[in-house]
Write a structure and sequence with these properties.
Elements: E1 2-6, E2 10-11, H1 17-30, E3 34-39, E4 41-42, E5 51-53, H2 60-66, H3 69-83, E6 89-92, H4 98-107, E7 110-114, H5 120-133, H6 144-156, E8 159-162, H7 165-173, E9 181-183, H8 196-199, E10 208-213, H9 222-232, E11 236-241, H10 249-252, E12 261-264, H11 270-275, E13 279-282, H12 291-298, E14 303-305, H13 307-310, E15 320-322, H14 328-340, H15 342-355, H16 361-384
Parallel strand pairs: 1-3, 1-6, 2-4, 3-5, 6-7, 7-8, 8-9, 10-11, 10-13, 11-12, 13-14, 14-15
């Protein structure tokens, strides 16, 4: 049996869905499971022997000039379909066309997909409400056609991996059978877990730094965070790390001239960002299970997050505080509490740091493979009765 996978994209070393895909498959492969990954191409630093690239590493500069992304995606899907063997489990990641889902289903293979974020019907409802609350015409890009496409795909699958309880709830709302949903998580690497001696001096710092990491836009609730930060009036600095989305620029820009708010447009060195931080903040309105939250565990940072931003891994009162993104009073009070109470802050930080090892990719990958095989076996047993 092989877990034959398609992620019709460029496999990045910088995070995101494609990074999670290769990390999970790498962990499964290391555990002795036969895997393959059909993709367009990849960063050299994450390339592995089980990749099946449409554009070889040496040909990337030429391939991306000669062909459109759509052309490369379709070519990758054709290669993937022709590779399927009788005992393969077909594991399909976002970006794959409905036609390929249908072809897999008609071939009789067990079809598994990955819901990286909440079901688009839930996403649209949440984001429409926020855009309207701000007096804006929704510009998030989710429409009835994309929702219908997702629904059709989910009607074809045998199983779907859900990385968080919020994603699971959205799938159940979309009438996906509970028995088809495999609850899981994402993870982090060993080098994302800071050494104890690197974080030992945090308790003696007199001026603290809070960080937000990710796309800076309405979906992530950064406009809410900035308002809460200013009203909390704590002594310290808030660093926003990521690119500002054009649709949110007018909401974010007025805060960027404040001395205690710093914008870092882009950096590959997230390790230093987390190392220099004391608190992690993520008031997302809609998410799956954000990789940046796992990095906060590995850095031993106390988190103040929304339920979506917590990604199902931050337990309220243990690794951080989980607060409704629109509960201004609770956010302001929590920021003040974490900044002013060193003992409380370090206690939560220790809980976070101790949990990080549970979410190493090697552990997550093994658990996922075990859950998938158990679900298939249970289904076979039920059918044989």
């Amino acid at each position: 049996m092989r877990i034959n996978t398609i992620c019709p994209d460029y496999i990045s070393s910088l995070g995101g869905p494609s990074y999670a895909c290769q990390a999970l498959l790498g962990a499964m492969n290391a555990a002795g499971i036969d895997v393959s990954l059909y993709c367009v191409s990849s960063a050299n630093s994450v390339h592995r022997s089980f990749y099946r690239l449409s554009i070889p590493l040496w040909a990337k500069p030429v391939g991306y000039r000669l062909f459109t992304e759509e052309c490369l995606r379709r070519y990758t899907e054709r290669r993937y379909l022709s590779s399927l063997e009788s005992q393969d489990l077909a594991y399909v990641w976002p970006g794959t066309s409905l036609e390929t889902y249908r072809a897999i289903k008609s071939s009789g293979h067990i079809l598994i997909t990955e819901n990286v974020n909440t079901h688009q019907a839930t996403s649209k409802e949440i984001l429409d409400e926020e855009w309207h609350r701000l007096g804006l015409t929704p510009g998030h890009g989710i429409n009835e056609k994309s929702i219908a496409d997702e629904n059709e795909k989910l009607e074809l699958i045998d199983y779907v991996f859900s990385p968080s309880i919020e994603v699971t709830r959205s799938l159940i709302r979309a009438a996906v059978p509970r028995e088809a949903i495999i609850q899981s998580s994402y993870g982090c690497n060993e080098n994302n877990i800071l050494l104890p001696e690197e974080i030992a001096g945090r308790g003696s710092r007199t001026e603290l730094t809070a960080i937000f990491v990710g796309r800076i836009g309405i979906r992530k609730g950064v406009h809410l965070l900035l308002d809460y930060w200013v009203k909390a009036g704590v002594t310290g600095k808030l660093k926003l790390v990521g690119r500002i989305e054009p649709s949110a620029m007018h909401l974010i820009e007025p805060y960027l001239n404040k001395q205690d708010i710093e914008h870092i447009p882009f950096t590959r060195d997230l390790r230093s960002v987390y190392l220099d931080a004391d608190v992690f903040l993520l008031p997302s309105l809609e998410e799956g299970s954000p990789l940046v939250t796992y990095l906060a565990l590995g850095a031993g940072l106390p988190s103040i997050v929304s339920p979506m931003g917590g990604g199902g891994i931050i337990n309220n009162g243990h690794e951080g505080l989980v607060i409704d993104p629109h509960d201004a009073d609770q956010w302001i009070e929590s920021i003040r509490k974490v900044f002013s109470d060193t003992g409380y802050r370090l206690s939560i930080a220790n809980h976070a740091y101790r949990l990080a090892g549970h979410y190493l990719w090697k552990n997550v990958g093994r658990r996922r493979a075990g859950s998938l095989l158990e679900s298939i076996a249970n289904n076979v047993n039920l059918k044989s009765r």
